[in-house]
Design brief:
This protein is α/β, with parallel strands linked by helices and 224 residues long. It has one domain: 2-Layer Sandwich (Nucleotidyltransferase, domain 5). Helix content is 49%, strand content 16%. Strands 3-2-1-4-5 form a five-stranded mixed sheet. A hairpin with an 8-residue loop joins strand 1 and strand 2. Helix 3 runs antiparallel to helix 4 and helix 4 packs across helix 8. 37% of the residues are buried.
Length: 224
């Protein structure tokens, strides 16, 4: 993947470019997780070490839509990103109870806003910042910086793709840990998605606290 879009917005005068994406809107169980990625291009150009540049080029070579990457490569990208000083990222999860209460779209936006808060962007950079969002809906009209939506952005734009990978990696790790609490559902295998295995285990064991009760298959199961 390349940095064509990030370079375009830098030429437009934006100093801070943030990519944001989510993982886990569709599953029947577990949280929705979002991640935001901010790349400090000034630091990259002036102060990055040769080792950091090498790692960054490796991330660029591997990065694509998180759903098209192997778990091994998602882990590798996450670990490399942690060691690069000019990449700053944050992540946040919102659980099934909140999803059921406010719906998945609002829960996703809540997690995304949490991510932006964790980045601690200084107000003096607001006018020079742009948020690149996967999809066709802005996050919040009241945010103090520009927002740009890009349909299938996780296939096209590096910062969004990296956010997607981090969100997917974090959520998968969370589901693997939660599988230890509810081993009968085998969450480590399907991560809460509505696979045949998951639906079979749902019919066998019923619903657990991790399931999203507002989602149709779970709602129908509870109604019978």
């Amino acid at each position: 993947m390349n940095l064509r879009t990030e370079r375009y917005f830098r030429k437009k005068g934006y100093k801070i470019i943030i990519g944001i994406d989510e993982a886990g809107r569709g599953p029947l169980a577990g949280p929705v997780t979002t991640a935001a990625v901010m790349i400090d291009f000034n630091h990259f150009l002036k102060n990055a070490s040769s080792e950091e540049r090498r790692k960054f080029r490796r991330i660029l070579r591997i990065t694509k839509d998180s759903k098209k990457l192997s778990p091994k490569n998602r882990k590798l990208i996450f670990q490399l990103a942690q060691t690069i000083s000019f990449i700053k990222f944050s992540y946040s999860s919102v659980g099934p109870k909140v999803i059921d209460k406010i719906n998945i779209e609002r829960a996703t936006k809540k997690a995304m806003k949490n991510c932006l808060q964790k980045l601690n962007l200084s107000p003096r950079f607001y006018s020079k910042s742009i948020l690149l969002i996967d999809g066709n809906k802005i996050l919040d009209r009241n945010l103090p910086f520009r927002q740009k939506t890009i349909v299938k952005g996780d296939n096209k734009i590096f910062s969004i793709a990296l956010a997607s990978i981090i969100a997917k990696y974090i959520r998968d790790q969370k589901m693997i840990r939660l599988a230890n609490r509810f081993p009968q559902y085998k969450f480590e295998k399907h991560k809460g998605y509505g696979t045949q295995l998951h639906l079979h285990l749902l019919k066998k064991y019923g619903v657990c606290p991790l399931h999203r009760r507002s989602y149709k298959p779970i709602y129908n199961l509870l109604s019978n």
